[in-house]
Design brief:
Gyrase A, domain 2; 2 domains; 6-stranded antiparallel barrel
Length: about 350
């Protein structure tokens, strides 16, 4: 099992370690509810160094990456990131990723820990079409990645770094100096809150983490991160997204351009035009209960889908989840039920904008 450069820091701060995607990671420190509330109300930090990070560079890099994703990368300027998906020949999702354009033909790509080897193989599979000048430099194990999230995150981080990070746009990326070393700071996250994801050399990881804790940030684990991303209605690969999931049914229409020169474009455009047969919806319990992945969702007594994710939301003080529902029934406000241990718990379909309901 792999360990990030922050492993010793997690143990010092009382992190309870578990296996996740081949890495030994903290699932919680003080507790999932406390950590979730710290991010919603103040600011918290997460070790996300298990996420894969690679630099792509060369004369045809932008054209090469455009082949792999449905988004229009010509609209992405230097210093800006694009959330998107890698698509396969069947119109399914290989992975969801963030592409940061650092220079016209130099990009930083962040992708999921569980898909690191799969994605790298996919990247290398299509690279020969664009010549040998496109290089892929996987820097996952040479760097750390720390997510700094919450309503106080930008101001607190600006003070620590001595830089006006509020000037960086959402999904922008900038270099900042920390103790004489340049770090990447991307204004992105996975919580529904404002903040940054910092990428630093591995040897600087513990110093950075301790500086953030000293400045008042709450260390948070994978448990709170999952609750926060479900509250924000965000996808997790292997749950809401798979190799068989079309991005249109996943509600990712906004990142699918009108281009037809990417992998799987014909199938995706057909679904976009005709409409998907199912849609990803939110589910909100109306009684006590904790919904979990795999629990059946029922409408008028018939099972119509299964939860792809489910948590207790400390923000809404309700059980919430997500599920693919037949398009004919996928309407916000539709009464439904979630089967929990043999009992049909009343629920309602909703948009995935759970935080708007708080």
């Amino acid at each position: 099992m792999k360990r990030t450069a922050l492993y010793d820091a997690h143990r010092r701060h009382g992190g309870r370690m578990v296996e996740f995607a081949g890495w030994e990671m903290p699932v919680q420190y003080a507790g999932i509810i406390e950590e979730t509330r710290a991010v919603r109300q103040r600011w918290g930090i997460f070790d996300v160094s298990h996420m894969a990070r690679a630099y792509f560079q060369g004369a045809h890099t932008s054209e090469y990456l455009s082949k792999l994703v449905p988004s229009d990368l010509t609209k992405v300027a230097d210093g800006i990131g694009q959330y998107t998906v890698l698509t396969n020949e069947q119109g399914g999702v290989v992975d969801d990723i963030i592409l940061y354009r650092l220079e016209p033909q130099r990009w930083l790509v962040v992708f999921n820990a569980a898909n690191r080897e799969k994605d790298l193989a996919w990247f290398h599979r299509w690279r020969p079409e664009f010549g040998t000048d496109v290089t892929i430099d996987d820097q996952t194990e040479q760097t750390v990645m720390v997510a700094v999230q919450g309503p106080e995150a930008v101001a607190r981080l600006s003070t620590l770094m001595g830089a006006n990070l509020s000037a960086v746009p959402r999904f922008g990326i900038a270099q900042v100096d920390f103790q004489g070393t340049a770090l990447w700071a991307g204004r992105t996250g996975y919580t529904g809150e404002d903040g940054f994801e910092l990428i630093a050399p591995a040897e600087l990881g513990e110093i950075l983490w301790e500086a953030l804790v000293e400045a008042g940030a709450t260390p948070c684990g994978l448990g709170a991160r999952d609750v926060l991303r479900v509250e924000a209605g965000l996808h997790l690969y292997g749950h809401e997204l798979t190799d068989e999931t079309n991005p249109i049914e996943a509600g990712l229409n906004w990142l699918v351009s009108e281009r037809t020169d990417y992998i799987g474009a014909e199938i995706i455009q057909q679904v976009k035009q005709s409409g998907p047969q199912r849609k990803l919806m939110g589910v909100v319990l109306q009684e006590r209960g904790v919904p979990r992945e795999g629990y059946p969702v029922m409408i008028e007594g018939d099972a119509v889908g299964m939860l792809t994710s489910g948590v207790y939301s400390p923000t809404l003080e309700k059980g919430i989840g997500m599920a693919y529902i037949p398009a004919s029934s996928a309407k916000a406000g539709m009464p439904c039920a979630v089967e929990i241990r043999g009992r049909a718990v009343p629920a309602t379909l909703s948009t995935r904008r759970f935080l708007k309901q708080a």
